[in-house]
Amino acid sequence: MSEAQDIHLTTLGASIEPQEGFSRSESTTPVTASDDGCPTKTYQALLLVSGFLMIFHVIGINSVFGVFQEYYTSPESNIPGAIGQDALVSLAGTIGTGLTWAGSIFVNPWMEHVRDVRIITMLGVFVTSLGLIMASFNTQLWHLYLTQALLYGIGSSMYYFPIMALTPLYFDAHRGFAMGLILAGSGSGGLVLAPVLNTLISRYGVGWALRILGLWNLAIGIPVALVLKKRPGFGARRGTRLGMGLAKRGTFVWQSLGAFLQAAGNLVPMYYMTTYSSSVLGFSSSSASLVLALNNAVNSVSRVSMGVLADKVGRQNTMIMSVILSALSVLALWYDAPRTRFLAFTILYGVYAGGYNALLPTTITEVFGVGNYAAVNGVIYFVRGVGTLAGAPIAGIILGSHSRSVGNGFMGMDLQDKYKKVVLFDGALLVAASVCVAYVRWLDARDKGRWMWKA
Known about the structure:
By secondary structure, the protein is mostly helical. The protein has helices spanning 3-10, 12-15, 24-27, 41-63, 65-72, 86-102, 104-113, 118-135, 141-166, 175-225, 244-247, 250-280, 285-313, 315-334, 339-368, 373-388, 392-399, 410-448. The chain is built from 18 helices and no strands. The longest helix has 51 residues, at 175-225.
């Protein structure tokens, strides 16, 4: 980031006038900002806690959809049409996850024009919980698409983006650490939710598991939604619309392509870890959920450590390393993996894969500037949402319809051969994403007229 951008970021709250609906008194209250317009440590701490809890639920739920997929496609499923249909079920999950990100295209402009962004976050909490609770009554595949895909995805986007779009503007020198800490909530959410949901489904059925999850999301989400406020000047310099000049820049084109490919590749292990564990390696459903929980636990720690590392060696450098190593872990460790190597993959992929998600918001600010952050962030996350539809569902098509209870028998070996193709497909997506993010790094240095090792 250039010196001018650093100065602009540190003076953002004080250097521009409040936008409509955010009065000067609001921007200088003791809770949200100091007298010079900078955010107080108290409000920064509230943002970190609120962001962590929001990510815990939204991305945590997205990351453990594999637990639901394993149940829906099993012989015990409450949806007969979903049994053995990985592609159809994973499509529902990726629609929900994709809308979480793709919703940025309408949530960000909406934030710019509302007086109080808490309205958006509160509505998002209610719609998310409604989707989960209604999903508890599903009996057909189209019910799943309506509830756990569309309703959940739309609600989670309204819940997710107000915090994710505004929080980076409240931090400067420690922005990488702050966003890493918030995004560590996804790993923590997966760590807790995977075994909890498996236990709830086993003891009380998927219906009550979803109702409990929906009510818990509501109980946590309401106080979280009350914390967020706009920082004066959000979107005021260039708005949330992406100009053609910016859209034609090489950095934007390649950043978008990298975001598409990484989103497509990133979800495949998340969705198929549990089915590979149970159907190929012969783990019980409870053990398979613990494998997913282990991955999320490591991922949670990694996101914070990646943020700290990024502040020291450069955010773009760390993100590039993260994508390259995650691609290598897929190809080297998951391909034809027995139990021991698969557990190593579970851990190492959790370490490496979290870096991209944790650092993308901060690198958007570095490459495109804080004035373009809202516009670029909205489009990039929309592209990521679309990218999810190119990953897990295609992997499901590769696997095809198959039995869930074969263990290591003949059909299990046949399924393992199909998983080799899934791994190669996933590895190719992540290798291509690595090339894109590395090229953005080179283009950014060229555009700024100098190469810096720390970037």
